[in-house]
Amino acid sequence: MAGICCGVAEGETPTPIDSSTSLRRRSLDLFPLKYISDAEGSSRKRQKLDSQQQQPRGCDNTVQNCESNNKDEAVENKESDQGQQSQVANNVSEIPRLENEVVGKEDQCPKYGVTSVCGRRREMEDTVSVHPSLYLEKSSNTEFQKRFHFFGVYDGHGCSHVATMCKERLHDIVKEEMEKGEENLDWKQAMEQSFDRMDKEVQGWGQMKHTITCKCELHTPHSDAVGSTAVTAILTPEKIVVSNCGDSRAVLCRNGVAIPLSSDHKPDRPDELLRVEAAGGRVIYWDGARVLGVLAMSRAIGDNYLKPYVISEPEVTVTERSDEDECLILASDGLWDVVSNETACGVVRMCLKAQASQKPVSPPGSPGSEVAAEGSDKACSDASILLTKLALARHSSDNVSVVVVDLRRHRHQEEQKKCD
User: Fold this and answer.
1) Widest CA span of the chain, in angstroms?
2) Which residue has the higher pLDDT, 52 or 153?
3) What does the alpha-carbon distance between residue 379 and residue 415 come to, in Å, rounded to a whole number?
4) pLDDT of residue 271 exceeding 90
5) CA of 368: how far to CAs of 35, 36, 149, 238, 365, in Å?
6) Percent of the chain at pLDDT exceeding 70
7) Residue 28 neighbours by CB distance under 10 Å
8) Which residues, including other chains, have CB under 8 Å from residue 343's CB and lie 6 or more apart?
9) The dihedral sign for the CA sequence 363, 364, 366, 368
10) With contact defined as beta carbons under 8 Å apart, do 262 and 188 qualify?
11) Which of 163, 262, 288, 394 could make a disulfide contact with 228, Cβ separation 3.0–4.6 Å?
């Protein structure tokens, strides 16, 4: 078969190319056109999804990502894991900007992923709350206005309504307390006051006459036997403020080392055992340590019938951020009962490294770059999903909720330099 010479420089020997190679080359030449067409098609799909986003909808099992750009994307996938189904949604949304504000590049919304599944329980009683840019510092003396980001995981027991109330209200209460403190903010006092106000709202709800029936009313007329754990994290440019009430947990991964930022409030924890007994209560070992043989945690929001033995006062830790910080994990005990801190951090680090090793499909600003940006945002979501699946594979018997936050400052700065 006669050969075809292509691209021969002076002094070089022509390389024969058969007809099949020529066909493959022509098909590759058409690839960029197809890629641009796909990108335009996905843009039209996003416009359609944006118009549908006006209708609010509830979803217990979600994965969310947030990045400061000018596009809104939503993708929903359904997965099945041992008979359990979880709906997954990925969002890339723009951080709302207030008028006349100046925001530093390093102070944008951190990337995060959220997964919450029912697991092997009949009822879903976990809730997750994520509020990027919950609070904007009012000080005008700095070069940029600092954004404070809020993350929370609530593990309900007895019913889901207390956890749902925490999801809907606690971040607003925290914001109000932060506004009261302004520049001289005492984090410990502000968070303790916020949790106390939340607990009183739950008590008030139990004393009200409800028009909406709740399954907990089948076994108690005033919903006194319902409560929820709460672990929250407020991320500032300099600090990580963690408040914990119950047996959910926050873990920081710094330079490959797992650092717990909260301590589980178990009834057999020595200091908690002394506190319960000093208040006149007892810890009875019935399928594990339980307050009065009922509740497997010594602190929670709600549970009015167990007061003053079970309190809503959180333990607050304030941690200075470091360039060696890699990620923050918030999760309910459905994860921590079967997965260690070290293993969880290892899983997240693996996902973050896998993302770092991926090369962009196209340079920023070129056709199809939105698709490439979506791929670079999946690490936290993948990590949260993988941790959830790991908990289910290890036969966790509880609801499992996981929040993963990317804290790698140097990576964000490098990405910004590439874009510039």
Assistant:
1) 98
2) 153
3) 15
4) yes
5) 7, 6, 30, 35, 8
6) 60
7) 9
8) 390
9) positive
10) no
11) 163
Q: Which residues contact 54 (CB under 8 A, 6 or more apart)?
A: none
SS3 content of the chain, % helix, strand, coil (to 5): 35, 25, 40
Asked whether the beta carbons of 63 and 374 are under 8 A apart, the reply is no
**How far is residue 406's CA from residue 216's CA, in Å, rounded to a whole number?**
37
Which of 415, 323, 333, 326 minimizes the C-alpha distance to 377?
A: 415
Per DSSP, the three-state class of 42 is helix
Alpha-carbon distances, residue 208 vs 135, 184, 212, 216 (angstroms): 31, 37, 11, 14
CA 329 to CA 312: how far, in whole Å? Answer: 22
3-state secondary structure of 226: coil
CA distance 122 to 89: 23
Beta strand pairing call for 249-254 and 325-331: antiparallel
* Residue 387: both structure tokens together: 């941790």
pLDDT tens-digit readout, 197-207? 999 999 887 66
Written as six digits, the tokens of 339 are: 């997965």
What's this model's pTM, rounded to 2 decimal places?
Answer: 0.70
Reported as type and span, the H/E element at residue 126 is strand 126-136
Taking alpha carbons only, the member of 100, 93, 96 closest to residue 144 is 100
Q: Give pairs for 72-75: CB < 8 Å, separation 24+.
A: 72/46, 73/46, 73/49, 73/370, 73/374, 74/46, 74/49, 75/374
Task: Give the pLDDT mean for 8-32.
Answer: 42
* pLDDT tens readout for residues 31-44: 333 333 333 344 44
Decide if 115 contacts 378 (C-beta within 8 A). no
Residue 402: predicted pLDDT: 97
Residue with tokens 């770092």: 356
Whether residue 308 has a cis bond before it, omega within 30° of 0: yes
The dihedral through the CA atoms of 334, 336, 338, 341 has a sign that is positive
Q: What is the pLDDT of residues 318-359, one digit of tens each?
A: 999 999 999 999 999 999 999 999 999 999 999 999 877 764
User: CA 225, 229, 233: angle at the middle one, nearest 5?
Assistant: 155
Q: Check whether 362 has a pLDDT greater than 50.
A: no
Report the interhelical angle of 187-207 vs 161-181 (nearest 10°).
140
Q: What is the DSSP string of 255-279?
A: TTEEEESS----TTSHHHHHHHHHT
